[in-house]
Protein 1
Amino acid sequence: MAQVLSGRKKSKLRASAGSFDSVTIAAGLVLGLAVVLAVFGPALAPYDPSTIDLSNALAGSSWEHWLGTDQTGRDILSRLLYGARPTLLAPLIVVIIATAVGAALAISAAWTGGWYDSLVSRVLDILFAFPGLILAILAVAIFGTGLAAPVVALSVTYVPVVARVLRSAALRESNLPYIDALYVQGAGTFSICLKHLLPNLAPLIMVQATIAFGYALLDLAAISYLGLGQQPPSSDWGLMISDGQSSILGGHLEQSLYASILVVVVVVSVNLIGDRVAQHFEVEQA
């Protein structure tokens, strides 16, 4: 019995022996720096991001303002540092909610089977048909601007993205011999799912959550860009891209450019890490 447990193989979930390459390490450092900025950004910012100085509007880079100022004289560097927290925290909340609910539905459906599995599958199919961005805009139209409504709406639409992949993996995993061995040993259903099935699916959950984070960040940045998310004088990166558009024709593209670069760099870094984790654990992505 112990040999069955210790010798079991996690199909498509085995860790490979390869080490992470330099590109992945660089992506991890970039993402780590973004997290540091999100945590300590307000303490590092040289100015209040909401302070308006019209006499210094659209100033170029200088010792006083390293990245220049926007159309109202606000320091761009300070706004980027303050904006890191809401920009990264909101998609993180989306991923946590979607992953927790999606994993619970997927594992319970795969384990229970029958009518419950069919019901969960149909509900996931219906939710999957809704475009996340459209549902988020609809939520804003009903509940008002801000990040709360889009975060909840995107969390709902991201649940099937996570759950459908996890359900297939959970079905395969639940049919492996070690599950029967655990039953023979007297382990209960909840114990097997929580202590064995869930940990064995952890690499796949990690990959799905990582990829979902990048898409959620883009969706929320787009919502803020449209003026439906964070509202002025917030320094959300998506809102900064929108605010800086009016100055681009005048040759002052700094605010939109720097905010856009940060969004792209963070999303690319997250996707690179997710892809490398999938390769490392030999995770099959749907």
Note: The chain has one domain: 19-51+66-280.
Protein 2
Amino acid sequence: MRTFIARRMLRSFGRRYGYDTSYAEMILQEAPAAFFKFAPLIKAAEHREVVPVDAAFAAKITGALAEDCGPCTQLTVDMALEAGMSKGQIEAVLRRDLGAMSPETALGFHFADAVIRRSIEDETYRDAVRARWGEKGVIELSMGLQLGRMFPMLKLALGFAKECRRVTVAGDQVDVIKQAA
């Protein structure tokens, strides 16, 4: 029964976001015990108490970009819009346009980018996050960043990451910049 419900939820999620959930459905079909251990991570990736929406999704989008070439990044963008992040702030993160980012968006982006690149600046941005939102803020940005990266990597490892596509924000294509030149 719970497998039936999980499959329906996956398909509903896929329709809602225009996202291919076939990799998760395959896990559910072939290894239900593994799927039901994996499923709670979806909720964990959504956890947010103290960090503003813009900072949280700046980190999540930056993480998705590090591991994905379109579909998972698009999903994260769509979720950011749904959560209330402005189109302009999302586009600024996708383009790495610091001048167009609000201070909150920039801090979420800088933190995530430094962690992804294993930059010596990671401690500087971690301290800035801690000063702004406390230890909870560091935990929230870390979980959003790292758990969000796990989904495209699992999809790739299972052989389902076959599609690259342009990212759109509210119907407009955006020229994504993955790393600084």
Note: The first strand starts at residue 167 and ends at 169.
Protein 3
Amino acid sequence: MRVAGRVLAALVLLLAGPGLATAQSQEAEPAPLVLVFDLDGAVGPATAEYLQRGLATAAERQASLAVIRMDTPGGLDSSTRDIIADILASPVPVAVFVTPAGARAASAGTYILYASHLAAMTPGAHLGAATPVQVGGANPLSPAQPEGEDGEQAEASNGDAMTAKVTNDAAAYMRSLADLQGRNAEWGERAVREAATLTAGEALDAGVIELLARDLDSLLAQADGRTVRLNGEPVTLRTAGAQVETLAPDWRAKALAVITNPNIAYLLLMIGVYGLIFEFMSPGAVGPGAVGAVCLLIGLFALNMLPVNYAGGALMLLGVGLLVAEAFSPGFGLFGTAGAVGLALGSVLLFRETPGFKLSPYVIIATVGVSVAFVAIALRAAVRAAQRGVTTGAESLLRATGVVQSWANGEGYVHAQGEDWHARSAAPLVPGQAVHVAGRDGLTLIVEPDNPA
């Protein structure tokens, strides 16, 4: 009986061993990690910084998937290319999810979606319109103009050369991104050349995206078990029962987002310029100069990362210079008027047209108004100072009033402006009589009765 019991126990352990080992391995295996990032708004330096740090964190924590929830009107080309480079170099698969309903992946967002390892959209979202925006040139979507007289066709062709160059480069870039994950390269090129757009359902049917999901849970459920190409190698996604964690931008990304706002950068620049002007007007004040220098440096740092039109910046500086010239050397309003116009036009032209990066007209109006008010106040102070009589020095004695202290034989002493002066007069005077100064001969005052009889 003992031998039979031992044999039976061994058989039970032998049969149950693999099952127990599998259960233990399943319990020991941690749940997959999915990190989520939110790209909401224009694509700029702050967005690139945020996603770069986020994808680095995903790699460090060995996440199974990084999800970028996106709703963007577009943004800067340089920042877009930085984000795409980070996605392509990421050791963690990246999914771009255009959500919620009504969201869009326009312009730069379309490029980022094409670069992702897995593309998904919420019903009601849309994407496309990825044509590069050119300022000061012809519309890249405009048809070829018919030949005209005097070489008009050649002139138009020269004007469109740069537009065609940029558009062709963007189309090639989109095709190369489409080839990485086998997406619809033909439609991607249409989005660049013709500003084509698609709804979520149309994008799925056209092979632009892989998944149509109502929320993040639906996306992860559909993504589980799918195979994507990561750095040229097939990778199977594990997202079932994943631990989902959303990473918010850190303080650096938030600060960068604030100062790279065109309105904030513009105001910092103007505060810096006027702070230095006040410091030069009142040397030793320290405060305006220190604040102005800090604001000017931060503003220039922000402008370095924004699509700046340097001609607009030069026109702004010229306008400020003319306003200051009006304050110091009044030109009957000519300097002030030209300065206000120059400042307004320069402000309008300061930033090149880019989706999501536009200077508010209200900020421009307020800034120009404050600048004109500053000049008006300075002019008023200068006029009042010119009209005010001299209050110190030798010239201040003219028409000053005084009182006769002693007098004899047409001369004596008069108390004026807190001092006793030797004086003479053609009129007879008596001590205690009020007089006023009519002139001066060296240190002798020539006085007359203040209220002659």
Note: The longest helix spans residues 152-181.
Protein 4
Amino acid sequence: MPKHEQQIHPEAAVAPGYLANHAARVFNRLVDADLRPHGLSLSLIGPIMLLSWKGAMLQRDLVRSSAVKQPAMVALLDKLEALNMVQRSPSVTDGRAAMVELTREGHEAAARGRDALLAANAKGTAGFSPQEAALMVQLFQRLIENFER
């Protein structure tokens, strides 16, 4: 019996929701440990990765595109701005809105974040065949769709 199954209720040990949540917590710890030496964390990497993927965007669109609520996003952006990883400027079309874009340091952080995320995923799928890894992705997608219904 795997070690983690010895520490939890037997029904939880076979519950997909529990296992997905447990896997996410372990994944998050791995990524955070990889990013910490660079002064980053998984929470800081979220907006950085989104900006790296989609390019500069309005702060409100950044909130809409992420799982982070407005007050928490403002705090993250304040911290990222202090670390010189993002810069905010007034929107040309709406003076009340802020445009957010990555700086050179932010692009470097996005590359580190990508590497950390890929490494953690590779560790999690070690020993899986490509078909098994693809099947797991499909099953997780279905699990998420079911939960969201």
Note: The chain has seven helices and three strands.
